[in-house]
Design goal:
Oligomer: single chain
Organism: Chromobacterium alticapitis
Number of helices: 7
Strand order of the largest sheet: 2-1-3-4-5-6
Strand content: 15-25%
CATH superfamily of one domain: Carbonic anhydrase
CATH architecture of one domain: 3-Layer(aba) Sandwich
Cofactor: Zn(2+)
Number of strands: 6
Largest sheet: 6 strands, mixed
Structural class: alpha/beta
Shape: globular
Protein name: Carbonic anhydrase
GO molecular function, one term: zinc ion binding
Keywords: Metal-binding, Zinc
Length: about 200
């Protein structure tokens, strides 16, 4: 059975058995929190459990590396909407150690794209149209610096209210241990979760 049919078969049983009832909530984050996290598969269940979160507690936005690459991109738009329309009162950026975006090589990504059928002509056309593919595909060298960058971008966005605390953390993808890189309350820039 292919992946789609496997998912749909599970969904049919999920709905028939009314398993959804345990997840009922509304659209507003119960803890008043929006989280930008990496999309890493290791964090799907680990991140919420490590932070004591359940369905309905937060607005969870995920992307590669928990990076904000552009102040007018969809991640910032989601955070702005979370604050103004969905009652988020604080923001957390949560990246992780051993991230696939650390030191990613844009040329390698583009080579893989070509192996999968994207033509050299397409890449040349995009570059000629002014799209900086190297910068767009670039990751980061240091996870803590990346978190600081994303926090800085959020805090300094012209549409973000100045009274919103923006925290930055790094989670260990095996243990779930959180390290605070930026304390949005201004109580110091680096601290670790108690051991």
């Amino acid at each position: 059975m292919d992946r789609l049919h496997t998912l749909l078969e599970h969904n049919r049983a999920f709905v028939e058995n009314r398993e959804y009832e345990q997840f009922k909530t509304d659209k507003f984050p119960g803890k008043g929190l929006a989280i930008l996290a990496c999309m890493d598969a290791r964090l799907v269940e680990l991140l919420p459990k490590a932070m004591g979160l359940k369905n309905g507690d937060v607005k969870l936005i995920k992307n590669a590396g928990a990076l904000i690459t552009h102040q007018w991109g969809s991640v910032m738009r989601s955070l702005i909407v979370a604050v103004y329309e969905l009652r988020a009162e604080e923001i957390c950026v949560v990246a992780h150690h051993d991230c696939g975006m650390r030191a990613i090589d844009p040329n390698k990504v583009l080579a893989h794209a070509q192996e999968r059928g994207v033509s050299e002509e397409t890449i040349v056309t995009l570059r000629g149209a002014g799209i900086d593919l190297d910068n767009w595909l670039k990751g980061f060298d240091n996870v803590a610096d990346s978190v600081r960058h994303s926090v800085h971008t959020i805090r300094n966005h012209p549409l973000m209210p100045k009274d919103i605390p923006v925290h930055g953390m790094v989670i260990h993808p095996s243990t779930g241990r959180l390290e605070v890189i930026v304390n949005g309350y201004g109580e110091g820039e680096k601290a670790a979760a108690p051991e």
